[in-house]
Write a structure and sequence with these properties.
Length: 266
């Protein structure tokens, strides 16, 4: 059961998790994509420091930066604040310094959506809360309150697919899976919902997930000796399971939301 403070996507704990997931997710994916086979822990530490600092700065300057009013301001602020954070990380960590331009590109790429999500979550939560206040009912974030679930689904499914035998593969599988999970959640929420998350969308999503997963399997090529299946097969299995579970849960939540609508309008 997700605590209420985390169901509210604009809360400080939720903002910190948004930053941590974004920065740490790509701190694992980018080195894997580049074929890096060295120690990965320093990248995660650098990403964690960057995430916490960025979220705190953006939250403190939220109103002056107009992030409460403009999604574009959030995106821009996220990208701009990422640059000095990478400079700090390069001064603290040799691995970041040796791959400076990749780190800069990754930092800006992550910072832009982190800032955008902070703005979006703030505005969307206010709309939900204002609508509840106007209707004189208790705030219910509904399906949006489950925003963290897809990260967990993806991480668990990729861990099951990889069956990691060392810590680095464990962390890498969880990082890749969490990003695949949230990508699939976006597909389910914004696209599959157009067909009311019909039953047929579940196997369709699973097949698409297997294709996406096959590509993600390339990220595990340096871990082939520690995998029980070829890395492409592991990726395909992880993507299949992630999208199968996410689409099924999306249908369940969609049905719940539809059944609750008449009661909320009374």
């Amino acid at each position: 059961m997700i605590p209420n403070v985390l169901r509210r996507r604009s809360s400080l704990p939720s903002s910190l998790l948004t930053g941590l997931i974004g920065w740490n997710g790509f701190a694992g994916i980018v080195p894997l994509a580049c074929g890096y086979a060295g120690p990965i822990a320093p990248f995660y530490l650098a990403a964690t420091i960057s995430a916490v600092l960025q979220v705190l700065v953006l939250r403190l300057a939220f109103v002056p930066l107009r992030m409460d009013r403009s999604l574009g301001a959030g995106v821009l602020s996220g990208g701009l604040t990422a640059v000095p954070l990478v400079l700090l990380a390069s001064a603290l960590f040799e691995g970041v310094r040796l791959h400076f331009w990749i780190a800069i590109g990754t930092g800006v790429y992550v910072g832009l959506p982190v800032g955008g999500f902070l703005s979006y979550f703030h505005r969307d939560d206010r709309e939900i809360e204002n609508a509840a206040a106007a209707a004189g009912r208790e705030v219910d974030y509904g399906r949006d309150g489950h925003w963290l679930d897809p990260f967990a689904y993806g991480a668990i499914c990729f861990l099951l697919a990889c069956l990691p035998r060392n810590l680095e593969l464990f962390v890498s599988a969880a990082a890749v899976g969490s990003i695949v999970g949230v990508a699939m959640a976006g597909v389910s929420h914004f696209f599959l919902s157009r067909w009311d998350n019909a039953v047929w969308t579940i196997p369709a999503a699973a097949v698409g997930g297997a294709c996406l997963g096959t590509v993600s399997g390339l990220l595990f090529r340096n871990y082939q000796d520690a995998l029980w299946l070829p890395h492409l097969a592991v990726g395909a299995l992880g993507g299949f399971l992630t999208c199968l579970v996410t689409a099924a849960v999306g249908r369940y939540l969609g049905i719940q939301e539809s059944s609750a609508e008449p009661a909320s309008k009374e």
